[in-house]
């Protein structure tokens, strides 16, 4: 009979909260979008599934040993915990965890040991998160793989398109302003670090967003990653109306001159040039852009093809699986269900829209004052979202002029946008991190 | 305090956007210079299929029989020419 | 001359114990079975080789820094150790390690630091074990890969076969009873947690057995894993006599109706249904079945094929290599050579036999009271041992009736058995773990 | 104590086997219901070769030249029909 | 304005030292050699790139949290650090770090926690180094992969060539003598452990050199690895003059008898024979040779091809990427730019030369006193540098006699050299390690 | 002290080189013995293409349809002979 009670009280039904049930539906919703609607399935399938796992009541898969112990320990153990924390008794688990977050590393270790001695352990997803994201390694490895898949040829053929990649990053900083604005009018409660992490959604680059969030605002990482990947999938819906509204029919018809061929040596030297520039100017962007350049050098140099192939396949796939599940661990109800999440989702789409608009407007400017014709539609590709945004430029261009293939031209600003948002990430980490 | 965070946000925007633009502008300059330099001093015969130099020593212990067979074949081929 | 003595006393010959020599022979024997007889070579080659490595005298590859230090430290260092342990001097290394096992986490850390300061380190295999098995990650990753290789089509076409997968798990619990029985008559010395871990051999599922043992009875893990994989390889010898004994010729001739086609959508939704049921009823089975369902969803959803391919190839292979070597580390003589190991080997084969019999008998029952004909031979496939047990059903069926292809029908109970033993694992962890 | 572990074993068997049976029975019900539901409301045209939807945006930066070439080929093919 | 100062003082230009700039050029030079000249690109591309990353001023990618904190902490925090170290105030970071290196593990932990609390973290490359090299796992995994790529057929057909693999290891020990000689005349400052690690360059085997250095002389690892891989790439230039100088034209013309066919069973049993011999005689070589034999057994046994394929491809490639970047982290200016590095580079090439000469001379001896003809040119292949050294033997042989294919005959001493240097590594770890 | 390290180096050379030679000499003996033993008692029919024994149970859940189809094909093939 005791066993029956043990089994029942250990069951999910007996412990399910409304928030957990709701978050499991959110997880199923993400899976639906990924599988049925094709929303960035490589990330949203693991994220959605991880989100369901994280919210299984009683399993504590997304919690650390300490969090699991705080929820499950008996009163005598909690007394010991408050002694270790050096506080008087508090009312709720939430306050205990807040007190835990405030103590120094030595006390953290002591309390972790207390949790182990009390028979609690880290949840599976918490371990995945620690190893893959908190360490920073998973986004960096994915960035290396993306580097090994990126062709800088179109960018090298027309380096001016780097300005478009810069312009579109305005979406990032406008969103920062939006986030602090919502905070200053009292609607939300974001710190400046939170605002910076939210802004990076506008970079339209998944690994960069996850990397920055993991440093500046780990609590918001779930919402930021979900927003970033969802809106990237929505780029074909978000961008065209903005692009049409800001350009004339005549501008959309502009045909661009054929790109010059780019030599292999230029492609080999380019990642090194970029790396040196990062080293001289923005060391805080070195991990992200360094790994990106390393991947690209492996691809272009032609003498380490087996490493490049692995970086583009086995390694990036393995990392993606664990990264996705780890992001899912941040969809745990008591962290995700918060008014701030709504703010993040709202601000994220604004970021995409502003980035698109800035790119198009600067492209118009460059067309007006430049010597060679430049179709403003390729400006929107500067938000990154590689290669979707470039395809959108191509598609909108074809609507206006069926002989106008903009794809190759849009790849320049598109990969420039990746560099631009990594630079923005470095600035933010430098100014508000640490 | 609330005004303070607004000011911080504005500052972050100015310095952040400024850095992005300056950095990418320098990259335009550096890239253009690099392409010119490479084009002038290290020009490739273009449009040739990309040659992948065989690594001097691959990690693997190559199959020596295969190497021998191939060496012999190449040798014969050259002599027949 | 001193160097010559150093070299000689560091050599294996000078330090070899009888137990180590014996275990190296066991390791060679496992390699022979794997390579020559085809016994589950993917696991038994690494396990056998790891077993040899673990028993190399003087190398201490399977020991932690503390174990190595306890064996190698000088008297002054041992005095310091007893002081840290808060005990008076003891006679043997064994007692020191028992005292070490009893202290709390903070003291564990202090003693680990003492070992490092004394110049000792973890052995290579000990590190592999810690990272891959003690963390729980390797069995879970393998289960994810198995999920990505599993086709639930036959099960979905005939869900009633899930009952056969349930029935065959009786082998697990009968073995638990056997283990506690042997203990209560004083022949063996198993705790209830040990008994549960031994029982899981009857689940005929390698990663499940390793996962459960690593939580409930890490000391028995070597014997349990070796038993589980060896008996799985022996399924074609163990099962047929039992199947023939419990069925009539007429029953073995029963032809089953063709399975209905199963739609892709059913296959996509099924892992989610299973996951939700686990979440509601048995959170302690969530890591195992969660990863299994995740792998299966990746396979079936069709939009993340590159992740699914990696889960089925590079990732599962890498994990198998380290899992196997880590299991081998538990074949170290002073842990493996124990009367309990014989008990485990004996109980394991009983578990397989009882599981087989239960599956066949319940299948007979279902055939008698069900509306559609059901060949009792597919009941034995409920023990798992995928896909060997299903092939055995097919083969024994063909002997009785050369036109009777049972393979597809037996795949239903076969994969049901995987679910069934993972559920049993969850119950056991819930009831006797922690 | 020895009798005690026997009792624990019996208990574990009863509750364990019970849970396994109940769980899988519920899974039979849920699976059957799911299949009926999917079959009724989301029936696929069966037996068609499985269509793999192209991911909306693959992780990789596709080769744009290839995309352009393929687009052109498809375009021509459609016009020729 | 403050932000502008923050950004400027965080930039690389403001913090660059001459040493860092110089090391970045060294990194570019290694990339040039790897990409343009084909110098061991699989290792030197990651090493060179890692070297550049390690020297990015202000990024601290190659430093631990403690090193980063010592360089960046404010005076109050440094006071706290000296209190933890139990020392009075010191003048430079270098002295602080020396004091840190001298304290025990518990104090290390306390100071690591101090660094975390002060807001500093491990650099990316430091983490890579810790996980891949300091743990020992990366060289071992690469050695397993090399084992899975090695064919012992030629060695088994002519086991006497093992003596050539032994002879060429004289380069290792002669170099040890050179290193201690330079120290005893006061030109360099190497400990006996340093000398042993430097000697292993003469083993001409990358993973062995990295494994030994990581245990005996981690500070010299960068220089040792760079020397080892560079000189391996230079084998076609270093060896031929020595080979020609030590042999007569007649000797170089010697044709060897065709190798006997070797059965599959011999190939399966050989790695086990080698393993047992290691276990009995030299346990300190067990990790290296154990993993090597394991890889080879996986390849030859024919029943775990999927594991063998993964060991030769995905796993070794992933490990190579991180191993290379980690070695690069040791090219950080304040560790690499040292007079000792020049000594290492000089001694390394001497080691290759002496190893080559010893191999050739012993081969001459064996030819004179043996019953079957033995071309002394295959002796040089005993240094390892697989398969480059064997190709060099073949090429020099063809020059003297265009019908004399020595490649297969040279593969015997070549793989024997791998075993020989792993044995030498074991002796050294046994005698001067720990 | 400086002379001391020289002595240590000489010692390391003597014992190290000695161990390498002794170890590889023993390996020559062991290998030769092993080859003789295998050749005498476990001789293979040589030069046959290497047969890869199918693992008794692969990790994967094989495609049962494929297995059935292949089984049938083999069956028919044998009967036709
Ligand atoms: Na971007
Ligand atoms: Na089972
Ligand atoms: Na060597």
Automatic annotation (TrEMBL), chains A, C, E:
<keyword id="KW-1278">Translocase</keyword>
<dbReference type="GO" id="GO:0015451">
    <property type="term" value="F:decarboxylation-driven active transmembrane transporter activity"/>
</dbReference>
<protein>
    <recommendedName>
        <fullName>Oxaloacetate decarboxylase beta chain</fullName>
        <ecNumber>7.2.4.2</ecNumber>
    </recommendedName>
</protein>
<dbReference type="GO" id="GO:0016829">
    <property type="term" value="F:lyase activity"/>
</dbReference>
<feature type="transmembrane region" description="Helical">
    <location>
        <begin position="126"/>
        <end position="150"/>
    </location>
</feature>
<keyword id="KW-1003">Cell membrane</keyword>
<feature type="transmembrane region" description="Helical">
    <location>
        <begin position="314"/>
        <end position="332"/>
    </location>
</feature>
<keyword id="KW-0406">Ion transport</keyword>
<keyword id="KW-0813">Transport</keyword>
<feature type="transmembrane region" description="Helical">
    <location>
        <begin position="42"/>
        <end position="66"/>
    </location>
</feature>
<comment type="similarity">
    <text>Belongs to the GcdB/MmdB/OadB family.</text>
</comment>
<keyword id="KW-0456">Lyase</keyword>
<feature type="transmembrane region" description="Helical">
    <location>
        <begin position="208"/>
        <end position="234"/>
    </location>
</feature>
<keyword id="KW-0472">Membrane</keyword>
<feature type="transmembrane region" description="Helical">
    <location>
        <begin position="415"/>
        <end position="433"/>
    </location>
</feature>
<comment type="function">
    <text>Catalyzes the decarboxylation of oxaloacetate coupled to Na(+) translocation.</text>
</comment>
<dbReference type="GO" id="GO:0005886">
    <property type="term" value="C:plasma membrane"/>
</dbReference>
<feature type="transmembrane region" description="Helical">
    <location>
        <begin position="344"/>
        <end position="366"/>
    </location>
</feature>
<keyword id="KW-0915">Sodium</keyword>
<keyword id="KW-0812">Transmembrane</keyword>
<dbReference type="Pfam" id="PF03977">
    <property type="entry name" value="OAD_beta"/>
</dbReference>
<feature type="transmembrane region" description="Helical">
    <location>
        <begin position="268"/>
        <end position="294"/>
    </location>
</feature>
From TrEMBL, chains B, D, F:
<keyword id="KW-0406">Ion transport</keyword>
<keyword id="KW-0812">Transmembrane</keyword>
<keyword id="KW-0813">Transport</keyword>
<dbReference type="InterPro" id="IPR005899">
    <property type="entry name" value="Na_pump_deCOase"/>
</dbReference>
<keyword id="KW-0739">Sodium transport</keyword>
<dbReference type="GO" id="GO:0015081">
    <property type="term" value="F:sodium ion transmembrane transporter activity"/>
</dbReference>
<keyword id="KW-1133">Transmembrane helix</keyword>
<comment type="similarity">
    <text>Belongs to the OadG family.</text>
</comment>
<dbReference type="InterPro" id="IPR023424">
    <property type="entry name" value="OadG"/>
</dbReference>
<dbReference type="GO" id="GO:0008948">
    <property type="term" value="F:oxaloacetate decarboxylase activity"/>
</dbReference>
<comment type="subunit">
    <text>Heterotrimer of an alpha, a beta and a gamma subunit.</text>
</comment>
<comment type="function">
    <text>Catalyzes the decarboxylation of oxaloacetate coupled to Na(+) translocation.</text>
</comment>
<protein>
    <recommendedName>
        <fullName>Probable oxaloacetate decarboxylase gamma chain</fullName>
        <ecNumber>7.2.4.2</ecNumber>
    </recommendedName>
</protein>
<keyword id="KW-1003">Cell membrane</keyword>
<keyword id="KW-1278">Translocase</keyword>
<dbReference type="Pfam" id="PF04277">
    <property type="entry name" value="OAD_gamma"/>
</dbReference>
<dbReference type="GO" id="GO:0005886">
    <property type="term" value="C:plasma membrane"/>
</dbReference>
<dbReference type="GO" id="GO:0036376">
    <property type="term" value="P:sodium ion export across plasma membrane"/>
</dbReference>
<dbReference type="GO" id="GO:0015451">
    <property type="term" value="F:decarboxylation-driven active transmembrane transporter activity"/>
</dbReference>
<feature type="transmembrane region" description="Helical">
    <location>
        <begin position="12"/>
        <end position="43"/>
    </location>
</feature>
<keyword id="KW-0915">Sodium</keyword>
<keyword id="KW-0472">Membrane</keyword>
């Amino acid at each position: 009979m005791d066993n029956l009670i043990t089994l029942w009280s250990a069951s999910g039904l007996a412990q399910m909260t409304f928030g957990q049930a709701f978050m499991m539906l959110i997880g199923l919703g993400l899976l639906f979008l990924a599988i049925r609607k094709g929303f960035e399935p490589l990330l949203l399938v693991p994220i959605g599934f991880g989100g369901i796992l994280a919210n299984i009541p009683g399993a504590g898969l997304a919690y650390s040993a300490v969090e699991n112990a705080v929820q499950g320990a008996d009163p005598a153990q909690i007394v010991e915990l408050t002694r270790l924390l050096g506080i008087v008794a508090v009312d709720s688990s939430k306050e205990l965890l807040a007190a835990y977050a405030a103590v120094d590393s030595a006390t953290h270790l002591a309390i972790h040991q207390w949790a182990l001695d009390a028979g609690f352990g880290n949840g599976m997803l918490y371990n995945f998160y620690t190893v893959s994201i908190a360490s920073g390694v998973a986004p960096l490895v994915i960035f290396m793989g993306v580097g090994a898949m990126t062709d800088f040829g179109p960018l090298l053929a027309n380096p001016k398109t780097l300005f478009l990649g810069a312009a579109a990053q305005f979406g990032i900083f406008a969103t920062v302003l939006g986030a602090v604005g919502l905070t200053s009018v009292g609607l939300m409660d974001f710190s400046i670090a939170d605002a910076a992490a939210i802004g990076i959604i506008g970079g339209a680059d998944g690994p960069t967003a996850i990397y920055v969030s993991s440093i500046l605002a780990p609590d918001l990482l779930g919402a930021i990653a979900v927003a970033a990947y969802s809106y990237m999938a929505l780029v074909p819906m978000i961008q065209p109306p903005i692009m049409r509204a800001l350009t004339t029919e005549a501008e959309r018809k502009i045909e661009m001159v054929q790109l010059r061929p780019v030599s292999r040596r230029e492609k080999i030297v380019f990642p090194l040039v970029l790396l040196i520039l990062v080293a001289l100017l923005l060391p805080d962007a070195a991990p992200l852009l360094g790994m990106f350049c390393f991947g690209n050098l492996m691809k272009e140099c032609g003498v380490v093809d087996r490493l490049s192939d692995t970086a583009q396949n086995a390694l990036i796939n393995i990392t993606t699986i664990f990264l996705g599940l780890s992001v899912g661990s941040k969809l745990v109800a008591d962290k995700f269900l918060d008014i701030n999440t709504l703010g993040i989702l709202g601000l994220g789409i604004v970021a995409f829209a502003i980035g698109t608009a800035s790119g198009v407007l600067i492209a118009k400017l460059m067309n007006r004052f430049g010597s060679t014709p430049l179709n403003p539609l390729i400006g929107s590709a500067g938000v990154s979202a590689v290669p979707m945004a470039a395809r959108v430029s191509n598609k909108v261009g074809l609507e206006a002029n069926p002989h106008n293939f903009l794809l190759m031209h849009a790849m320049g600003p598109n990969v420039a946008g990746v560099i631009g948002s990594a630079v923005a990430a470095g600035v933010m980490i430098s100014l508000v991190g640490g | 305090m609330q005004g303070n965070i607004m000011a911080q946000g504005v500052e972050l925007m100015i310095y952040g956007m400024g850095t992005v633009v300056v950095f990418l502008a320098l990259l335009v300059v550096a890239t253009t210079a690099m392409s010119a330099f490479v084009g002038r001093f290290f020009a490739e015969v273009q449009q040739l299929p990309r040659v992948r130099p065989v690594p001097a020593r691959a990690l693997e212990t190559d199959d020596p029989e295969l190497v021998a067979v191939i060496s012999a074949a190449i040798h014969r081929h050259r002599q027949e020419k």
